[in-house]
Fold these 4 entries.
Entry 1:
Amino acid sequence: MSTTIFAPQLKNESSGDSLQQQITVMIDDLMKRLPNPERLTSDERRGIIARYTAVLEANFIYWMTATYIAVQSAEARPIIIENLYEEVRDSHPVMLRRFAIAAHAFPTDTDALAVDVDLTKVRLFLGKLQGVQSLVTMAFFEGYIQRFMSYLAELAAAQGSVEMEYTDVHGVCDIAHSEGLFRACSLEMSLNPIKADSDLFEGVKLLRTLINSIVQGPASNS
Ligand SMILES: [Fe+2]
């Protein structure tokens, strides 16, 4: 226990809430920094949808799977499996591709390469298979996606699309996903605590940089 920072703090509910509160503050900050859709050009709106699709379509299930492999807590695994089950059964990548195509925002090579460096960093982070840090990262991501959906839908509508199944589904179901992942974080922390010199938010910070690249595009200086 003396070699850990966070496990002792998270043995009670209030500390678990505290982690969720910290993540919420980070998400609030990202939401405040989103550009006003009315001030974006059509090309800028298309770029955000395209880069989001380039990252999410091929990576979300991969990242959740990496998190499943990383966790040691037997109680945390069913929570992740429930997530993956829904992603695969309802084919969320199909939904997202349909959403992007309907908004005339299917990613090009330029879109994919604009996020390549920051995407690679997140992939390599998850490859380190650190159970707690991976879970915190995915809990942050689920929470962010849920909040981001109305903005993404607004961009697509401004592009003339009426195909909103992806944003409708994720604005609702990911609330449950996010809460389940925070519960899994607490379970994993007690069984597989992180080392004292580790950064609990290592993956969250990398993902936050990637989100900035999605929103800001090639001009991103994050
Ligand atoms: Fe999904």
Entry 2:
Amino acid sequence: MKTIRLNGNKTAAASGPDRSFIASGLLLPAAHKASDLHLGATRISWGMTNRFSRTFSVFLAVVLGGAGGLRAAPLKVASLSTVLSDVARQVGGDKVQVDEIVRPGVDPHEFQPSPGDVERVAGADVVLVSGKGLEGYLAKLEEGGDAKKFVNVGDRVGTSLKLEDDGKTVDDPHWWHSVANVRRAVGVVRDAMIAADAADRDAFTANAAAYTGKLDALDKTIRLKVAGLPRDKRKLVTSHDAFQYFARDYGFKIYPIEGVSTAEEPSTRKVAELLSTIKKEKVKAVFFENTQNPKVISQITRETGAKVGGELYADGLGAADSDAATYEAMMLHNVNTLVNGLK
Ligand SMILES: [Zn+2]
């Protein structure tokens, strides 16, 4: 049985042009916002005040709730980022249903939405966008939809670091490797959920505060672990330039193999430069990423004697059965792998 939320906000949202609800055997035909809603033979004006909206909600609850089992439907949140899916679950709790459009292990640089994905996004109340240019396909999803429900989180978390991509300077999209940025993202997600579902404001606010506390503890833990690694050993060689925000916050120097996009193959010249840098800087270890082909990495280890430090999660969370299934776990995995590999 489909359910309908019984507060003013969501009742109005549920009256969008493409929805109808069957509840307790009563069909509520799809009605346009601010138009009339037909309920059996009764015609009720939909352009109502908040007070009337509440009264009407009670009326609906009485009419529809008779058969029992009617509950508030969760807010539908579609997420284009595995990190934001986790943030949405933390902040939304049982008040939201998170639909992961971009799933763990998928390369977000290469992702293209299927027609099914476009449909799922169209059916969502809120769409969380990673931002800073990561979703090149975004216009396709926004087309003909409600632009207001797209929340570009990355563009609101703070200063963008820059990258050279194909001769152009662009925003570095990997903002989530800074815990401070994710802390700000929690506030953006909380506010977006409240705007879409004011009735659950208290829950969203409390969940966001609790999760922010966890992020503060995570940030402290990472700083403590990094402090155990001498400064001249904080050198990070990975297969694409994803860790600038991490390096800025936690004091690492980065030697990237590729530019911003994983679609690039590193040039022979670039690899040769990197090989000599690794030897000169006495870099002890190089690192894989979860969505990368390790071919170049094995060439580097062969020719420089640096060891493989392990796998880093550069572009999002790991699968549910991995040790990086949540944002906190992913960051701890990365910092542990780095510190153990480089010390
Ligand atoms: Zn990336």
Entry 3:
Amino acid sequence: MIKLERPNRPVAFTAAIEHALIAIYLESNKPVWHDAPGVVDALRTMSREKCAYCEASIAERNTPSEIDHFVSKDNDPTRVVEWTNLLPCCRGCNSRKGTHDVLAEPIINPCDIDPKQHLLYADGYFRPKTALGKTTLRALDFTLDRKLMRAIYELTLQANNRLEELAEKAAAEPPPTKGNLTRLRNRIAALMEDGQAKEKFAAAVSTAILRSPDYVTVKAFLQQADRWDAELQNLEDTLQSHALL
Ligand SMILES: [Zn+2]
């Protein structure tokens, strides 16, 4: 989970439409959010087509798009299409969270609270740093979805393996030629791209990269060779903002 920046409510989704949709929901109990103009697209753009909770690609995990009501419809039906109450979500997280009452037992809303303040990722698992983190993980219980946990872990392993290979190249004798240095610089940049917000499981991948001793080795080597540039530093700053350390 990474921090999300919620954009302004879509202009086409007027207060009059919202009131009409709430009335339809209260009467029929049928889903109405897909009739809120611009909302689904705006939410999916906000999360870069990922689940706001587990960061899986929604396209890979879903057939139709799902929207989580942060305050569930059972707990407050009048917020059924409230812009700030809607989050893009995969089917698994949506069903595991279910009707969890966030008013009675708050959890992280990634649009409002930075997950890194409350969660860790270590040894293939998300773990709580705080009471809010604990409630969040209990409500979302990612561990029930073994396929999801394995997919996240595999990406972190891949990152670690690539870093190990790069660290070996950095330590090789004789030292890398100018061309090889450029290749090394480009390969670490490509690896850091995998922890950027648009990529799935960015929080876990960012954590794996920053925690790796091989990353420290490669970075120190490039710094010494005067090849640690502003673009690499920007990529690292973003990893820092996502990492659950
Ligand atoms: Zn999810």
Entry 4:
Amino acid sequence: MDLIGKVLAGATLSRQEWLSVISDRASYPDARLRSIASSIRDSIYGRKVFIRGLVEFTSFCRNDCYYCGLRRSNSRAERYRLSAEEILSACINGYSIGLRTFVLQGGEDMYWDDGRLTALVREIREACPDAAITLSVGERSEDSYRKLRQSGADRYLLRHETADAVHYSKLHPLSMSFQNRLECLRTLKRLGFQTGAGMMVGSPFSSEDTLASDMAFLQDLRPEMVGIGPFIPHRDTPFRDEMMGSVSLTLRMLSIVRIALPSALIPSTTALATASSDGQIDGLDAGANVIMPNITPSTERRKYLLYDNKKISEEEAGENIAWIIEKLRMAGYEGSLERGDHVQAIADIPHS
Ligand code: SF4
């Protein structure tokens, strides 16, 4: 039995074994990985692609990640912060067109303390009772995560970016702790969030070896969601002259993640769509099953720039759900506005 056979039989692979899967293209060609990954996805979720409404609600951030256009040292970034009313109204508009998941994403903006953020989550919960609320607001204390969970947040995205400690230290300033990031992810899982981890592919100093560490970490953590996108340099960061990550390696990794975590919710990311014109559909063909159109008010949408040339297409924004569903249909997928919970999370909901 080869290594993919072992994974499919439920085995945990070592880092070295993951390295073989990633690097041995003769034994594990892209086409084979893609075909296995999409059959696994189809057997669990069918051809459904879950459509989430993304609200990028603050571009302020206290951190200084070397790869990110929102880093605090970037004095050229145009900063904005939506008010609670604007965020709520974006969700209510999204709800009225049928969206049942909202992803509230922002930098680590200390204005959004626990009091403000929990109040906002409660208001969204009240206005959109059957919608899933996903937060993506970085590292916080266990107490803060608990309060957010209790106020009604269902899911939390926190990409680990790399599971190799030395690599992490080359992408982040000393003030940021690799251990704390991993600990945050474990805490989120423990508190019952459907938890999302994920990494950039092709970031500076990365290698197939660091990706193997990512796979070993993901197989151990078993997050419900995994976000994977190619590294794309931003001109106002220390990595401005670095090469963009490979789209084909990103797609290969996406298939490998689907095989390792069969029921994961995996977005076909905006970074993929930015890196290649067919990137979003290619991501779905590689095994993804989520897309996150932007429902941020259009005046602010262009200011949330994690990397250069971010794809900001009005056609593919939340206002144009019918067009998005049609595009998915033409590619052989069924766009779904439902909550789209992780299958295990649905199984865990007590039935009376
Ligand atoms: S990656 Fe996130 S935490 Fe880091 S600077 Fe950008 S917004 Fe802030």
